[in-house]
Design brief:
2 copies of one chain form a homodimer.
Chain A: H1 2-5, E1 8-13, H2 18-30, E2 35-39, H3 46-53, H4 58-62, E3 65-67, H5 70-74, E4 79-84, H6 97-108, E5 113-117, H7 126-129, E6 134-137, H8 149-165, H9 180-196, H10 206-219, H11 223-241
Parallel strand pairs in A: 1-2, 1-5, 2-3, 4-5, 4-6
Helix pairs in contact in A: 2-3, 2-8, 6-8, 9-11
Chain lengths: 245, 245
């Protein structure tokens, strides 16, 4: 993963709280990004930062670069992505991170990309946004739009990471479903069992069976699961058939 | 937005740090979710929580419900989504939040949905994961998989929020799922029955139960279906208990 995001940096413009920087270091490293640049003061409490980064991301803290001006910090980047909050007054059109994550990931393969975030209280002003090639707004509830800075960083990094790693597609290693033979054999056993215990209405034995089939179908029963159920039915049938003995 | 996510709650199982709970309250409210349940102690420093929630999300803190047991906290939910970290040892297949966000959003239109998170240090154990209908893993860099708890909450909430607010979302008719109380009652009956017929290994009775839980969860059992199965178990149990008569 690292290689895919190595050209991406987080640039924090005048952040106020050491704790946030620590949280950002952790979040960035979670998503394979380890370059952080800070514009403004370098006077942050190391302990407060490290408490939030955890010691596992303290290497990211160690390599933070500090700059006095934003122009200097951004000078060596090829592509700058700004971030703004959804404000009461319309500043749209809003571009969501997901809409550009793939582009950013692609661009970063050959270019240095900066993800630029403003101060906790005011965000980026138009003056800083001017420097950006793209500006994204993280979608939020209209009722409470103010994101914690590290949460905003996390969401943007997560979207880019997801775009680079196609992580959403790994989920579907489809397991082996039961064959129709196995399923019908299982339903036959269940039906016999339920008839034996007089659960089924002899007039309409299919009524309950229909319900059972419906959810077994929904589950997409695996071959081995059908085997387990058949094993249980076999055992239960022995009890059911001895009901009058 | 609020209406779309009103049935979704965040359930924190034994969280350790007040600050994280505050950050979670803020993140949840950013994404239109305002119900938080905490299992374990209720003894958290209010000031530490509020410092991170900001006063704008202090209403979410005020309405936190505290529970002593996880069964009690989850009892009235219809659908429970667990979360696990990507660990060194394979516990996969991993399902990414994005792969299920739309489903969760749809299910929540007619059902109470819990997003369950474990303690900061250990995460959820198998015992708690047993209670879940789906388990998701947030994709991270392999080099540093340990997410801050509030960041994990944020990502899952963000994915669901994004899924609910997509213009394409049409409230598909999702039926009413069984409550956790009903499901656990059903599993209890099945377990007793299988123990009675000596199907379960007394040394490790959870082994087969785990398999059964897995496909029942996949199916998303409806309330009436759980009722049918419980009826069948009740009848079968009578036979099983007379095995030696």
């Amino acid at each position: 993963m690292k290689a895919k995001t190595k050209n991406i940096s987080i640039v924090l413009y005048k952040p106020k709280y050491a704790g946030n920087i620590g949280s950002i270091a952790r979040a960035a490293k979670n998503m394979g990004i380890s370059n952080i640049l800070v514009v403004g003061t370098a006077d942050f409490d190391r302990e407060a930062m490290q408490q939030r980064s955890t010691h596992l991301a303290s290497d990211v803290l160690d390599s933070i670069q500090y700059f006095e001006s934003i122009e200097e910090a951004l000078g060596n980047f090829n592509y700058i992505v700004g971030t703004t909050a959804r404000l009461g007054k319309a500043r749209g059109p809003f571009i969501a991170p997901r809409a550009v994550a793939k582009d950013i990931a692609d661009i970063s393969q050959k270019n240095k990309v900066a993800l630029l975030f403003g101060p906790e209280d005011t965000g980026l002003a138009n003056e800083e946004l001017r420097l950006c090639h793209a500006v994204v707004t993280i979608p939020t509830s209209r009722e409470f739009t103010s994101l914690n800075l590290s949460h905003a960083v996390m969401i943007l990094c997560y979207e880019i990471f997801t775009a680079t790693s196609a992580a959403t597609t790994i989920a579907t290693a489809t397991p082996k479903l039961a064959l129709s033979y196995e399923l019908e054999g299982m339903y036959g056993q269940i039906k016999t069992l339920l008839a034996d215990i007089e659960f089924l209405n002899p007039e309409n034995p299919e009524y309950w069976m229909m319900h059972l089939r419906r959810f077994f179908s929904r589950a997409g029963l695996l071959s081995r699961e059908a085997g387990i159920i058949r094993g249980i039915c076999r055992k239960l049938s022995r009890y059911a058939q001895h009901k009058n003995t």
